[in-house]
């Protein structure tokens, strides 16, 4: 049996340069695919597109993913159909060239984005089961994936709707490395709460790979904005999905913990009042047990040596 309970796939990030174009982003993605990356994710809002350009992007992405057999997460702005604002979008394309799901950013950054970017519908995050292309000496791997964009990750009630997934994709674009590192740490909290891996690709801050225990396995701070940056890491996946109490009960878990602490606070005076009496009783029990043990050892000692003395007397 050549199957392995822990199977490793390569995942990668394409961090865009300022003024990135469709063909260049697709080409950079293909470079990672030729380096064995099976899931490639772009940094947030890599492209600013007109409506007719979105179709071109999807067609080129479809052709490239079919050619190299990998999953590609596209990120782009596009005009809204209902307002003069833009939509901040994510689209996942499969190795068969088909669209798996779309997602619109739910929480634009206040002031920096909210004046020009339309809020998405929110609610339930998209979840899809994807099957990885079969690798040599390994059984075929399938996993559940979902995605949210940048600031969305700071809203646990939104992310928990995708707690069933194995891998969570998070394109992001922060302004400074120290801000990106803070958001990377916040993403690690979501990983702990929901028991999933997080692939974060941050075009301006800190990209990384976080495991279901919240450990940041890999991290790379964005270095330059004048060229494309390509990152790839090994992602070890187990057949076993980690289930958490928080994923099942959400914020009720927090309120439950606060309730227990409140009850302990109420019980504290009673505990302190009766504590000395209880401790004295337990101390007396301990003293009695120790005394009985000493007596038992003494009796055993005397019986043993009395028996030896008796045998010596008979021998004499």
**Helix/strand-derived class?**
alpha/beta
| N-end to C-end Cα span | 74 Å
Evaluate the radius of gyration: 30 Å
For the record, the CATH architecture of the largest domain stands as 4-Layer Sandwich
Q: Mean of the pLDDT scores?
A: 90
What would you call the quaternary organization?
single chain
Number of domains: 2
Q: How would you characterize the largest beta sheet?
A: 8 strands, mixed
Order of helix and strand elements from N to C terminus: EHEEHEEEEEEHEHEEEEHH
CATH class division of the largest domain: Alpha Beta
Fold and architecture overview:
- GO terms for molecular function: N-acyltransferase activity.
- It comes from Acaulospora morrowiae.
- Keywords: Acyltransferase, Cell membrane, Membrane, Transferase, Transmembrane, Transmembrane helix.
- The longest helix has 65 residues, at 251-315.
- Helix 1 runs parallel beside helix 2 (51-68).
- This protein has 6 helices and 14 strands.
- It is elongated.
- The chain has 316 residues and is an alpha/beta fold.
- Helix 1 links the parallel strand 1 (6-15) and strand 2 (37-42).
């Amino acid at each position: 049996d050549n199957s392995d309970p822990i199977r490793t796939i390569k995942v990668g990030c394409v961090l865009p340069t300022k003024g990135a174009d469709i063909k260049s982003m697709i080409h950079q993605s293909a470079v990672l695919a030729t380096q064995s990356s099976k899931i490639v994710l772009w940094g947030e809002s890599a492209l600013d597109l007109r409506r007719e350009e979105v179709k071109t992007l999807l067609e080129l992405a479809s052709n490239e993913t079919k050619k190299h057999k990998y999953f590609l997460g596209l990120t782009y702005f596009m005009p809204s159909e209902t307002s003069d604002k833009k939509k901040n979008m994510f689209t996942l394309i499969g190795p068969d060239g088909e669209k798996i799901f779309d997602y619109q950013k739910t929480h634009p950054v206040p002031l920096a984005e909210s004046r020009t970017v339309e809020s998405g519908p929110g609610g339930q995050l998209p979840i899809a089961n994807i099957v990885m292309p079969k690798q040599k000496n390994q059984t075929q791997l399938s996993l559940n994936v979902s995605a949210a964009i940048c600031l969305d990750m700071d809203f646990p009630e939104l992310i928990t709707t995708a707690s069933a997934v194995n891998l969570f994709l998070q394109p992001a674009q922060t302004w400074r490395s120290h801000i990106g590192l803070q958001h990377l740490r916040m993403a690690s909290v979501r990983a702990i709460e929901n028991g999933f891996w997080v692939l974060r690709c941050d075009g301006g801050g800190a990209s990384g790979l976080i495991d279901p225990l919240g450990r940041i396995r890999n991290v790379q701070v964005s270095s330059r904005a004048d060229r494309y940056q390509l990152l790839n890491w090994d992602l070890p996946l187990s057949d076993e999905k980690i289930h958490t109490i928080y994923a099942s009960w959400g914020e009720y878990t927090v309120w439950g913990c606060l309730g227990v602490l409140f009850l302990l606070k109420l019980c504290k005076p009673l505990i302190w009042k009766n504590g000395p009496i209880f401790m004295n009783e337990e101390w007396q029990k301990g003293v009695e047990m120790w005394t009985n043990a000493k007596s038992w050892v003494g009796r055993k000692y005397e019986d043993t040596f009395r028996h030896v003395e008796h045998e010596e007397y008979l021998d004499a």
